[in-house]
Every structure is written in structure tokens, then in C-alpha cells.
């Protein structure tokens, strides 16, 4: 009778962590544990094709703890010697050098040996999805989730790993991931093909030797290496490994990949003299390598191939050279769809991402259109700072993509002509008439088209103001002792006011000072980060200190204060419509930024100066009334509590400190 695998991976992870507490960091446990788990799996199964060292069986290895680390290292070295395809996979950790290898022996004896990893003993023996594999996946995932940002390196959220193969929809042929990490995409691609009675050949490339080794072990756990999947080591951009015998790039039927976000040292110089023809659509920004991976994917596809790529929003909207690249890809009919996903899906970063779908076999009927799907709101909260895609969210995205269904507020096929008029931006938010934004009055649904096409007279912000970027001070500028000015940074603006106490002194030449000096009436708008800060400089702010603004702000200076009020401009930018534009214009990969040109292009209602001041006064009075009511309620609450404590008879036993 087949057994049911009884071990609970999350519970076992806690036991292992407790055993190894003080012996290694959380980030080290998985790296050192996975080779041991995989070796036990290989020793207790015979269907994998690897040669197991004689006299180094798992049973013998764990029979006692004497020199356990040394004997384990010898066994793993011998495993690699007997199996050339495992070179540099199992020996990245030298267990003989562990100062306390009895901890690892205790893990093997009390946790790993609690049950056999022999797949044939259990109700589901399938190497890809069976009982033992599900347990090992759960155990390793438990450690990954505890590693924070470091654990996120090389791994993709389960929901994204499930979504991408379904979007790719390949059940035969070849599939590659050129930033394969722990090989989650390759494993899920194999599951998808198997589920649909197909058979695929999988390839990967990974730049980090340790990540590649752990990824190979992951493939072994799932019964895929090396027959179904293989992963080579190297830098995909500067040293692509998957090539034909004549040196040309190997072409694939499909590509699934989530390249590293915002890599700066990506190989710009090598790309300038690229011999593989990858950059014929243009050379990406020197500062960001995301687009280089997109272009590598395009060059690595067969003539009817498809690539499904996870990208940060910067890829979709950065200007200059990358706007030209997007234009070329779009005009050639290569981009089929862009799918906006929720933020906080990845461990260690909250930046929003999207799925970019490149299709060299894009149907002629939609050749001059791109499908945009706004799936940012489809998720559940997994933990405090972590969101995840639900099965229903994945199903909706896949269904809408495959059918090119138009769903109001969710999906839309946008003509290329409209995209070109938006500077070739592929940010989904730009192409939906309605969007939800958080504002001072709560969450609001915005109808952009209704605002823009209304008869309301409007004026472009850049026509009535000067919008300038702030100062990026050098070390020579910083000087608290002989300061000529004080620098306003993000931390110095709180609740719409400049806090003078923490301002840092800076010494500037008269010419530089004139360029960045603040005057009463100047509106400061934060240009970096997802939290938007605004303040209008008052006469009191500059009464005792001459202020300049940092590169983290944009300064909006009204050209004619007799016609336009900076407080009114601030009120509009804080309104639902203003917040929509500011959020839509945010760009960036690791840190979002606002361009001064984008802000200057915003259109606001054209009102007389009297009407502007009327609006400003109304909102100011409302804020003051709100503060008064809240303060009164706070004092009333405090008094009631004190009265209650007095009735208790304990009021003389405490003193309020603030």
C-alpha cells in the first residue's frame, strides 16, 4: 500500500532553523541545505540516470555524526567526478570547513531521515509534481520567504511563474530563460506542456554560479536535468552561451524570462560592438540594462517565436534612446501585449512590474494594435508587504489575452497611432479612460478622456510656470560651518511644510545660488519615490535662511503671480485628476522619478485669479476646520479617559509625559 508523505514543510523549516540558530544566517541555510536534500533524493531513487558514489550511500553517510562535514564533502565531490554534467553544482559549499557540522548532521538525522525520499513509496511518485517534490518545494520555499530581498534574487513569485507559461502557450519545441535563476519558469513551462500532453526542450542561462548550482538542483528535484532542461553559466548580454555551431545565436520557439531590474553595469561598451545583431533596433540606455534583455530575447526568437518578459515600468516609458527602440519594435509589429501587474509581488521590492509580450507571429488583424491589460488591482494580500496573484486573477488575464477581449477599464486594444502620440509609452495607465488613484478624499475612479475632452478651458502648466530640476550637491558644496544656503531634501518636507530644524548647510557660488534658490510662492514637488510630496514656499520659510532645493524635487515657479496662484496649482496637483497625471508620468526601475518635461505638459483648468484664490481659500479653510475638529475630539477623548481613570482611583499613580 502506498504511503502518504506526512512531513509538513513549513513545520520542518522551523525545526531546521531552530537547530541551526547561531550556527548560520537565514540566508545561508537554504544554500547549505539544498545539496544535502538533493543528494538524499538521488541516493534513495534510481530513475535519474546519475551515478551514485559507492560506499557513500545516504544511509551510511548519516549512520553517525563523526566527521560528518568532511565525509559529506567527499561524497559530493565524488558525485561530481562520476557525473560530468554535475560539475560545480554540489561543491560550492565545503562542509568540512563548518566550525560546527554536528548541527547539519542533527538536521539530517532528526528531520531529513524522518521519512524516505524514495518516490515509489508514495501515492504520487511523479518527479515533476509528486509527493516528494511537493514537500521539497515547500521546504525550500519556506526558507526563501525568510531571506527577504536576498531570497528574492533568482526566484520569481509563484503566481508570475504560473502565469507566464500560460501566456506563452507552448506545448512543443524549445523554450529558453536567459536569466533563469532558480529555474522556476522552466519548471512551470514543463508542467504546462505535460498538462497539455506536450513535450518541450528547455534551456537557461544564469550569471551567478551559486544560483545556477541551486537551480540545477531544483531541476534534478523535478526530474528534468539534464535530459529535459539544461542551464549554462555566463552573462547573457556580454557572453551569450546558447549559440549555433557557426557562432550565431541559437533561436528558440519561446522565451520566458524575468531579467534583473535596473542593472547599470550591463555591458554597454560590449553592446556597442555586438556581433550578434541584437541591437539593430537601437542601443539601450547606459544606465539601465532592462531593454538589453528585451532586445536579446527578440534576437533569440525563431521567425514565428514568442517571448513573455517581466519588465519594470521604466522599460515601458523611458525616453531618449529607449523610446526610439520601443518605436522601432512597435512599428515592426513585434509587440503584441502589455499587462500591468500589481505592485509588491516580488520579495524585497515593491516596484510595479508588467508583462511584455513579443510575438513574431502576431496576427495580421491586430498588427497595428497592442493589447493593454490593466491587472494591477487583481491580487490578494499574502502578508503585510507582500501581494500575490490568485488563481482567478491568472485565469482572467490569460482568458482576456488569448481572446483579445475588450473589457471596460481592464483591457483595450490601442492603435499604434495613439501610442505614437504618447511618445511611444507602453505604460498601461496611459491607455485607460478610467483609473483608480488614492487622493485626499479617498480612492477615486478617474475618467481621463472625459476630463481631456470636456469644454472646460485648460492651460498647460509649462505655459504659465517654469519647471526646473533641483541641485545635486557635490562634496565640496556641503559645508555647515560657512554655509551660504540650506538644502531642502525629501525628509525636510512633512505634512506640506518645510521643517527647518534638520536642514543641512551648503556653500554655493552666486551663479549656482541664483539657479536653485527658493522664493516665496515656489511650489516644490517631489520627483523621486512613489510618495508624492508638495509644499509652497512661504516668506517665513526663507526669512532667516536662504534655501535651495535638492535633485529630489522639481520647482514650479509661476511666471506671473498676478494671473496664476501657486497654491491653486498645488491644489490641482493634489486633486484626483492631478494625482492621476503625476502617477501616470512616474518612471523608473528601482526608484520612480518624475520628469520636469512631463510635469510641464500637464493641463489644468484655466480659471481667473479670483476663482483660483477662491478655491485655495475654500480648501485651506476646510483643512483648518478638519484639524480643529480632530484636535477637539482628541482632547475630549483624553479627558474622558482621565475621568474614567479617576473613577477607578488610579489617576494619582501616573503622570502624562507628552
Q: What's the gist of this structure?
A:
The chain has 658 residues and is an alpha/beta fold.
Describe, in plain words, how this protein is organized in 3D.
This protein is α/β, with parallel strands linked by helices. It is built from 23 helices and 24 strands. It has a nine-stranded mixed beta sheet with strand order 3-2-1-4-5-7-6-8-11, sandwiched between helices. Strand 20 and strand 21 form a beta hairpin. Helix 1 (9-20) runs antiparallel to helix 5 (102-110) and helix 8 (158-168) runs parallel beside helix 15 (391-403). The longest helix has 40 residues, at 609-648. The mean pLDDT is 92.
Strand order of the largest sheet: 3-2-1-4-5-7-6-8-11
Distance between the termini: 70 Å
Mean pLDDT: 92
Strand tally is: 24
What structural category characterises the helix and strand content?
A: alpha/beta
Strand content: 15-25%
Low-pLDDT segments: none
Query: What is the helix content?
Result: 25-40%
Q: What layout of secondary structure does this protein have?
A:
Blueprint: H1 9-20, H2 26-43, H3 58-61, H4 68-82, H5 102-110, H6 131-146, H7 149-152, H8 158-168, E1 172-177, H9 184-195, E2 199-206, H10 209-221, E3 229-233, E4 252-257, H11 268-272, H12 290-299, E5 301-312, H13 313-317, H14 321-331, E6 335-340, E7 353-359, E8 369-374, E9 380-383, E10 386-388, H15 391-403, E11 411-415, H16 416-421, E12 434-439, E13 442-447, H17 448-452, E14 458-460, H18 461-464, E15 465-469, E16 485-488, E17 493-494, E18 497-498, E19 504-506, H19 510-516, E20 523-526, E21 534-536, E22 547-549, E23 553-558, H20 566-573, H21 576-585, H22 596-600, E24 603-605, H23 609-648
Parallel strand pairs: 1-2, 1-4, 2-3, 4-5, 6-8, 16-22
Antiparallel strand pairs: 5-7, 6-7, 8-11, 9-10, 12-13, 14-24, 15-23, 16-19, 17-18, 20-21, 20-23
Helix pairs in contact: 1-5, 1-6, 2-6, 2-10, 8-9, 8-15
Amino acid at each position: 500500500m502506498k504511503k502518504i508523505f506526512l512531513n509538513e514543510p513549513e513545520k520542518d523549516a522551523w525545526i531546521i532553523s531552530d537547530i541551526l540558530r547561531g550556527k548560520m544566517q537565514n540566508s545561508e541555510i537554504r544554500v547549505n541545505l539544498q545539496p544535502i536534500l538533493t543528494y538524499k533524493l538521488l541516493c534513495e531513487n534510481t530513475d535519474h540516470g546519475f551515478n551514485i558514489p559507492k560506499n557513500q550511500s545516504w544511509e551510511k553517510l548519516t549512520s553517525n555524526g563523526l566527521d560528518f562535514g568532511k565525509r559529506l564533502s567527499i561524497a559530493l565531490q565524488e558525485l561530481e567526478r562520476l557525473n560530468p554534467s554535475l560539475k560545480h553544482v554540489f561543491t560550492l559549499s565545503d562542509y568540512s570547513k563548518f566550525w560546527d557540522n554536528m548541527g547539519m548532521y542533527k538536521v539530517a538525522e532528526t528531520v531529513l531521515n524522518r521519512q524516505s525520499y524514495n518516490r515509489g513509496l508514495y501515492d504520487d511518485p511523479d518527479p515533476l509534481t509528486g509527493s516528494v517534490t511537493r514537500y521539497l518545494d515547500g521546504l525550500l520555499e519556506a526558507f526563501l520567504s525568510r531571506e527577504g530581498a536576498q531570497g528574492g534574487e533568482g526566484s520569481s513569485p509563484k503566481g508570475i511563474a504560473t502565469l507566464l507559461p500560460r501566456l506563452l502557450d507552448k506545448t512543443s519545441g524549445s523554450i529558453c530563460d536567459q536569466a533563469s535563476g532558480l529555474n522556476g519558469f522552466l519548471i512551470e513551462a514543463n508542467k504546462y506542456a505535460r498538462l497539455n500532453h506536450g513535450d518541450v526542450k528547455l534551456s537557461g542561462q544564469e550569471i551567478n554560479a551559486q544560483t545556477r548550482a541551486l537551480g540545477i538542483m531544483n531541476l534534478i528535484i523535478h526530474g528534468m536535468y539534464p535530459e529535459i532542461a539544461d542551464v549554462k553559466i555566463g552573462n547573457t548580454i556580454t557572453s551569450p552561451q546558447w549559440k549555433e555551431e557557426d557562432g550565431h545565436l541559437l533561436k528558440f520557439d519561446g522565451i520566458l524570462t524575468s531579467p534583473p531590474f535596473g542593472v547599470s553595469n550591463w555591458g554597454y561598451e560590449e553592446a556597442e560592438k555586438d556581433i550578434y545583431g541584437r541591437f539593430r533596433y537601437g542601443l539601450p540606455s547606459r544606465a539601465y540594462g532592462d531593454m538589453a534583455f528585451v532586445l536579446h530575447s527578440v534576437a533569440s526568437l525563431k521567425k514565428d517565436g514568442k517571448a513573455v518578459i517581466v519588465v519594470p515600468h521604466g522599460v515601458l516609458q523611458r525616453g531618449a534612446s529607449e523610446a526610439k527602440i520601443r518605436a522601432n519594435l512597435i512599428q515592426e509589429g513585434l509587440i503584441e501585449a502589455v499587462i500591468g501587474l500589481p505592485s509588491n509581488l516580488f520579495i524585497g521590492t515593491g516596484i510595479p512590474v508588467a508583462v511584455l509580450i513579443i510575438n513574431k507571429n502576431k496576427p495580421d488583424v491586430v498588427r497595428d494594435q497592442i493589447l493593454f491589460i490593466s491587472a494591477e488591482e487583481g491580487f490578494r494580500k499574502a502578508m503585510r508587504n507582500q501581494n500575490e496573484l490568485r488563481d482567478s486573477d491568472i485565469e482572467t488575464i490569460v482568458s482576456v489575452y488569448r481572446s483579445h477581449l475588450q473589457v471596460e477599464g481592464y483591457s483595450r486594444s490601442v492603435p499604434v497611432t495613439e501610442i505614437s502620440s504618447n511618445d511611444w509609452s507602453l505604460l498601461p495607465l496611459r491607455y485607460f479612460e478610467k483609473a483608480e488613484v488614492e487622493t485626499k478624499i479617498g480612492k477615486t475612479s478617474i475618467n481621463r478622456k472625459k476630463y481631456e475632452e470636456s469644454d472646460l478651458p485648460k492651460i498647460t502648466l509649462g505655459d504659465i510656470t517654469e519647471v526646473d530640476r533641483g541641485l545635486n550637491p557635490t562634496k565640496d558644496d556641503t559645508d555647515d560651518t560657512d554655509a551660504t544656503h540650506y538644502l531642502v531634501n525629501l525628509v525636510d518636507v512633512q505634512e506640506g511644510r518645510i521643517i527647518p530644524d534638520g536642514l543641512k548647510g551648503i556653500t554655493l557660488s552666486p551663479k549656482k545660488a541664483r539657479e536653485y534658490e527658493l522664493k516665496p510662492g515656489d511650489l516644490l514637488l517631489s520627483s523621486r519615490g512613489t510618495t508624492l510630496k508638495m509644499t509652497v514656499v512661504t516668506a517665513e520659510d526663507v526669512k532667516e535662511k536662504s534655501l535651495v532645493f535638492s535633485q529630489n524635487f522639481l520647482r514650479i515657479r509661476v511666471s506671473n503671480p498676478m494671473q496664476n496662484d501657486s497654491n491653486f496649482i498645488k491644489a490641482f496637483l493634489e486633486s484626483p485628476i492631478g494625482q492621476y497625471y503625476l502617477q501616470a508620468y512616474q518612471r523608473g526601475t528601482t526608484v520612480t522619478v518624475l520628469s520636469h518635461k512631463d510635469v510641464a505638459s500637464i493641463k489644468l483648468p484655466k480659471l481667473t485669479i479670483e476663482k483660483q484664490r477662491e478655491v485655495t481659500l475654500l480648501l485651506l479653510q476646510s483643512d483648518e476646520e478638519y484639524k480643529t475638529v480632530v484636535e477637539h475630539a482628541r482632547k475630549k477623548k483624553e479627558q474622558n479617559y482621565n475621568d474614567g481613570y479617576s473613577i477607578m482611583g488610579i489617576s494619582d499613580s501616573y503622570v502624562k509625559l507628552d
